[in-house]
Specification:
Blueprint (H helix, E strand, L loop, with lengths): L25 E3 L8 E3 L9 H5 L1 H4 L4 H8 L4 H7 L10 E4 L4 E4 L24 H8 L5 H4 L3
Antiparallel strand pairs: 1-2, 3-4
Length: 147
């Protein structure tokens, strides 16, 4: 088939039989407002036809793999938004907006939790001092952590 610049190939049909999808697998919810993977055993009718047609490219066997594959910049948020559980690593990282060191967690009872670290955040283990030294070697720990 010859495709000219003004022509587009036909989109895959959305009428692929639902039973063609294997049970309990996860696919990205790119049409949604948040980073999230949907469970095809619950959301079968909503899976786009192109994902059914290219199953191995879009569908994962478990939630964590789906989030890592399709939302690598916000894997933790994806897991939680999708109904899974993720506690975070509790390692320290720099919140460059507040210029404070915070922990990779989402526990409202811990004043040092700064939400989940993104894949671009450098983690400094359990040492707040190492994290603070990354902002400025002159900062004391009490000056550089969220309280």
């Amino acid at each position: 088939i010859l495709v000219t610049p003004l022509e587009r190939p036909a989109a895959p049909a959305d009428d692929v039989p639902v039973d063609a999808v294997e049970p309990r697998a996860f696919y990205p919810n790119w049409g949604g407002l948040e980073e999230k993977c949907l469970d095809n055993s619950v959301e079968t009718e909503n899976m786009p036809g192109y994902m059914r047609t290219n199953y191995n490219d879009f569908v994962s066997d478990d939630l964590e793999t789906c989030c890592a594959k399709h939302y690598d910049w916000a894997k933790a948020d994806c897991i939680v938004n999708s109904g899974g559980t993720y506690a975070g690593s509790s390692e320290w990282y720099v919140n460059w907006v507040s210029l404070k060191c915070v922990k990779d967690c989402n526990d409202s009872s811990d004043a040092n939790c700064g939400g989940f670290a993104k894949n671009w955040d450098e983690l400094f283990g359990d040492s707040a001092a190492d994290c603070c030294g990354n902002i400025s070697p002159d900062l004391t720990i009490s000056e550089c952590i969220e309280t």
